[in-house]
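*** Backbone structure tokens ***
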Amino acid sequence: MGESLLVNFVYCHPVGHAVEALQYALGYRRADPDRRIGVVLNSATAVQLADWCDAIDDVYTVDIDVFEPPGPEVLAHVPAEWDWVVDDPRGHQAWQHQYFPGLKHYYELAAQHFRTTNGHTQVGAPAPSYRPRNPLRLALPQPARDWAAELLPDHDGPTIAVLPGGSAERWRYPSLASWQHVLEAFAQRWPQARFCLTGKHADDGRTSTGFTRAEFEALAEVAPHAVWAVDVPLAQQLAALQRCDMLLSPHSGFAFAAMAAGTPWLALAGNDWAEYYFNPGVPFHSVLPDLQRFPCYLLLGNTPDPVEDDGPRSPSMSAARIDADLPALLDGAALLLAGQDFDTAMRDHAARVHALFGGRTELMYSVDDLLVSYLPAPPER
């Protein structure tokens, strides 16, 4: 083995942040295939994803609450000596520290704990060497893939996975009535469609789905050929998604994992974050909201007031927004089901986001800066 490198990527626990860590580990591996690559993750995230990524040799977890300072022993079990340690840059951002004081203290402890021969730096620094924009593909266990093959045998028509909500408060996702309206429209457009419902209810300290079991059952009543991949292990959920033609969901870290499994993503975009993870070779389509009518993307601490829609509802997930963008959602699905390629999807998305943000590229953050690389060159003056 060559030099050792540790990706110290400890942040909040949603699944998507683990996928980010895998993507960066892959970039360091591709830059130097002889490296020994380790990764440190929040123990409450989907750490098993790292076991399915062949770019990673060693996986370590730490028990951390980002709102509370961890104890001095939090890193005691993680080897201290490495050639390189690269941190998640968010652990060093002052505005993140305002919301997550435990994160600040963790990275202060990490600076004391690790001893490096070449440097302790951050992802994105000029060194160590890094090759960006690599396709990430999870190698899921064979038993999970066998289970998925029985759940979803070959089907004469598209198979559409549906994740109706993530782990945030229920009011931040569409109402049951809105989701029923969406699935009815999809079933009318594609009468042979099969729907694979996915999500997780277990209260195990990790992310879960705020959509209740009763709501899932009500969705299944309007979704023809409904199949359940709810409350099964993550490997089985992702293996089921591998057999789907696309995933339909709001912004969710689980969708990042789905793309890492090779499943195209149709995003009902909104709430805090514009989509910022794109997996080369895996198409996607993000249906963007009208920011004037349905405010969102205001980042932490600036959540817009909810509107009334079967109770309080995030404006960008309201029935009015769903009705306004349902044609665009159906057209986005048609693009993915027709086999739109990744580069075309990226160019289309980059153009639409550029217009949405008024050309402010500083708002167009993406892993590996992939998004801005697809913007057209500015006209020469």
